């Protein structure tokens, strides 16, 4: 349902606060997001008190927001925030004011203001759970060493070990402000927030599309290789090592192998080129298919099932890399490196890999990051890379006034 917006303008910060307030008071699940380069913020509310699940055959799914963990589900299901209410509001950077649907403003005015930010909506994590959730540096270094050894032994070409970083939830943590900062700092990312009662509450800024379908057009990308952007024109001056070029080429090969599996020969491939995500540079290739010309109307769902988890977040071959991570990583990825995004909204589905992300609990915020390992990797450098990746979200969470 598309709502008309109220005439009264409010600041973008206030709008975010009111959306969050209404979302938590609604009692169901909700999500908000801003697509890369878009000037609009989109929101869905679902009043269902029980987390909804759908099959990941997306053609049959109503409008909404999908949330799938890293682990494949035996029943091919994902969590789903059905679009019982959907609206979008202007949210350009240079436009400090915006409008909300009238009902949200009324809802927020009537409600209890103290609930505007309510960490008690989030699950509580015990100290014991924090300890075993994979944030230890020595554990990660050892994991990378083991990864390199396994690649050298020939059982895998690449693997993507990950870690967490846990921050304390401070009293001055301001969710609306963190989101506003993420939105304006990362205009090329998919900035997102979703809340599934009793399941999880996550905030992130992903640079990686897993699949997108819009009308007859299908799109996916291979993204890998990381360096910190430096200098005046980082996109032009970036140089890539053989290790990074190979790492990204493996992700592209993985996509082409998926096309081969379904005998799809007509696709466009462009790249790789250097792209910017926050203060990081990556190598990216773009893949496009016309679903009408290739007579493949269900390509989105088919590729979603074939691609996830890609070798940008798991490794290659996928099965061996996944088994290695399960045996050695030592923590549960949950929704990290899973996939999230709007489905069948205005004839478009945009599903992102859930990277540069954090889960919120009553007392902690857990950041997640991984790094692609090949035989030329250096454990200390991979640790540094995950620090920088964690910081993309972390720096807007640790200090409320950032
Ligand atoms: C696994 C992550 O990034 C992936 C995407 C781009 C570059 C990557 C890399 O250089 O390792 C990773 O494959 C992450 O951000 O946690």
Automatic annotation (TrEMBL):
Where is coiled-coil annotated?
none
Query: Which stretches make up the Chorismate-utilising enzyme C-terminal domain?
Result: 136-389
Which Pfam families does this chain map to? Chorismate_bind
Report the InterPro entries cross-referenced here: ADC_synthase, Chorismate_C
**Know the name of this protein?**
Isochorismate synthase
């Amino acid at each position: 349902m598309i709502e008309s917006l109220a005439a009264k303008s409010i600041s973008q910060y206030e709008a975010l606060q009111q959306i969050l307030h209404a979302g938590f008071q609604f009692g169901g699940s909700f999500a908000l997001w801003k697509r890369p380069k878009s000037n609009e913020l989109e929101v869905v509310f679902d009043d269902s008190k029980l987390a909804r699940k759908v099959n990941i055959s997306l053609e049959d799914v109503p409008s909404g927001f999908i949330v799938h963990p890293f682990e494949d589900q035996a029943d091919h299901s994902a969590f789903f925030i059905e679009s019982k209410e959907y609206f979008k509001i202007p949210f350009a950077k240079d436009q400090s004011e915006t409008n909300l649907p009238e009902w949200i403003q009324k809802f927020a005015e009537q409600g209890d203001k103290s609930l505007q930010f309510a960490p008690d909506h989030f699950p509580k994590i015990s100290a014991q759970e924090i300890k075993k959730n994979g944030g230890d540096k020595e554990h990660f270094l050892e994991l990378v060493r083991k990864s390199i050894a396994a690649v050298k032994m020939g059982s895998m070409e690449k693997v993507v070990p990950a870690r967490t970083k846990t921050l304390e939830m401070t009293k001055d943590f301001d969710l609306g402000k963190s989101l506003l900062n993420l939105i304006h700092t990362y205009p090329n990312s998919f900035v997102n927030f979703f809340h599934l009662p009793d399941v999880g509450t996550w905030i992130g800024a992903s640079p990686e599309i897993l699949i997108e379908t819009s009308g007859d057009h299908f799109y996916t990308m291979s993204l890998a290789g990381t360096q910190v952007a430096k200098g005046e024109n980082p996109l032009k001056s970036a140089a890539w090592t053989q290790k990074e070029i190979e790492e990204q080429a493996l992700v592209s090969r993985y996509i082409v192998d998926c096309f081969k599996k379904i005998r799809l020969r007509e696709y466009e491939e462009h790249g790789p080129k250097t792209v910017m995500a926050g203060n990081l540079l990556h190598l990216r290739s773009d893949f496009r298919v016309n679903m009408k010309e290739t007579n493949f109307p269900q390509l989105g769902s088919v590729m979603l099932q074939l691609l996830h988890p890609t070798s940008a977040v798991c490794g290659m071959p996928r099965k061996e890399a996944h088994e290695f991570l399960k045996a050695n990583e030592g923590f549960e990825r949950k929704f990290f490196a899973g996939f999230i995004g709007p489905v069948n909204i205005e004839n478009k589905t945009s599903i992102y890999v859930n990277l540069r992300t954090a889960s919120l609990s009553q007392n902690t915020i857990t950041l997640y990051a991984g790094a692609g390992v090949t035989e030329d990797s250096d454990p200390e450098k991979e640790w540094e890379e995950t620090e920088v990746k964690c910081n993309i979200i972390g720096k807007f969470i640790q200090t409320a006034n950032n």
